[in-house]
Amino acid sequence: MFPEQMYTIIPGALDEATCDRLINSFGDELDDGGLVQGQSASHIRRSKITWFNESQEPVVTRCITDMVAEANRNVFDFSLSEFAEDAQIACYSGDQRGHYDWHSDVGASDIARRRKLTLVIQLSEPDQYEGGLLQLNPGGHIIDAPMERGTAILFPSFVLHRVAPTTAGLRYSLTQWVHGTPFR
Ligand SMILES: O=C(O)CCC(=O)C(=O)O
Ligand SMILES: [Fe+2]
């Protein structure tokens, strides 16, 4: 797989009304976000997170499932079996310099080692925050993810990525991991 094939961008994955609804339904329930191994360290990650499942958001879950299936067919061709974790909503606040340092989503725990694909959807309008750029480093050079609201970014979960410090406003994102037999 060449670095330029290491991610795919899907504009308009969710419409504005759905982004608003997710922020309004879940934005008040956020707790401090942990790390891949379930540890927490605010110098590595400072954000608030919560989770939703298929029964809470059947339409969004359907949309994500279809998008993942198509991207996997066209781009990744990984062996995927399920969503073993609920979808995550994260909020990075300018007041707290919200960020998430360079990391891979594949970890040592039973679930984190089965993460194969990471899907991130930008829920906030770019003019609602400053900084907060999602960046990928798939092969020695840094790629800035598009900030447009509703856009999905999909990449193998082992690819290094970060959220740069948010310096003003609030940035909301949705993350869904897709699981299967561990990479080997
Ligand atoms: O919020 C984002 O854009 C990325 C979140 C992330 O990398 C994670 O939760 O592992
Ligand atoms: Fe991540």
TrEMBL record:
GO biological process: cellular response to hypoxia
Cross-referenced InterPro entries: HIF_prolyl_hydroxylases, Oxoglu/Fe-dep_dioxygenase_dom, Pro_4_hyd_alph, Pro_4_hyd_alph_FE2OG_OXY
Annotated Fe2OG dioxygenase domain residues: 83-180
SUPFAM superfamilies reported in the protein's UniProt record: Clavaminate synthase-like
Recorded superkingdom: Bacteria
Molecular function as annotated in GO: ferrous iron binding; L-ascorbic acid binding; peptidyl-proline dioxygenase activity
Cofactor: L-ascorbate
Record keywords: Dioxygenase, Iron, Metal-binding, Oxidoreductase, Vitamin C
PANTHER family: EGL NINE HOMOLOG-RELATED, HIF PROLYL HYDROXYLASE, ISOFORM C
Protein's recorded name: Oxidoreductase
